[in-house]
Structure formats: C-alpha cells, structure tokens
Design brief:
By secondary structure, this protein is of the alpha/beta class. It folds into two domains: 69 residues, Transcription elongation factor, GreA/GreB, N-terminal domain (Helix Hairpins, Orthogonal Bundle); 72 residues, Transcription elongation factor, GreA/GreB, C-terminal domain (Chitinase A, domain 3, Roll), CATH 3.10.50.30. 41% of the residues lie in helices and 25% in strands. It contains three helices and seven strands, in the order E-H-H-E-E-E-E-H-E-E. The strands form two sheets. Strands 5-4-3-7-6 form a five-stranded mixed beta sheet. Strands 1-2 form a two-stranded parallel ribbon. Helix 1 packs antiparallel against helix 2. The chain starts with a strand and ends with a strand.
Amino acid sequence: MAGAKLSKSALERLQAEFHDLTTRGRIEVADKIERAREEGDLKENAGYHAAKDEQGHMEGRIRQLEYLIDEPEIVQNQVYALVYDGDSDDMAERYMIGNMEEEIDDADVISSTSPLGAALSGASAGDSITYDAPNGSMTVKVLSVDSV
C-alpha cells in the first residue's frame, strides 16, 4: 500500500518526528505515568490521567506518521501565485497544492480535493480559472507557478 504524496523535505521532517516520538517521546511518557502511579490512588490521580491522555494522543500521531511515511510517493509541489477577480496583482496570494503535512514559507497549503486546489491543478501562468466555492462562483488569475 502506498503512503502519502509528500515532498522530500516533508518526508524527512515526518521521519524525524516519527523517530523522536517512538524513542524519546515514549520514554518520557512512560516516565510520567510511572511517577504518577507512585503518587497512589489512580482513580483520582489527575497526573496519571493526563499522562495516559498524552500517551494516547502520541500513539495516535505515531500511527498517522506510520501511514504517511510508509512507501510515500515523492512529489515536487507547485506554488501558485494568484489574484481573485477584481483584485490588483499586488494583492496576490500564494497557495501550494499538497498534503496538509507540508510546510512552506509564504504560501498556504491546500488540498488537491478542495474547490480551489482541484481548479488549479494543471493551471499555468496567465490562466483565468472559475471554480465553485462554498460561497459562490469565484474567478482567479494565475500570475505564476513555481516548483518547490
């Protein structure tokens, strides 16, 4: 089963997070649980319950990371600079279509299944695109497309 579509930098960041959580993270949470157990009655032990909640959240994130980094498809993402109909070019917004785990400076990450993401897929600089947004039909002009 193929994992997620990720850029090389996102994959490396997620692999590092996975390694940290499965080593240091698990050890720290186990220590917190053990210290809280030593305080006595577990039914009314807020520290114990907080540590168990933290452990549950961390294990959920570990499972999510396992899925994302298992046989990922490495992709080169595109950043689209665009303006909405009626706006001037100096009001341009930058969007990258990609996995929500991607991080990029000065651009918002949007899903390829979002209305704007689906409309921008394959667009080129100079294209005007109309798409159906939740609040009605929107038109954008693509100013540039850069690979990142």
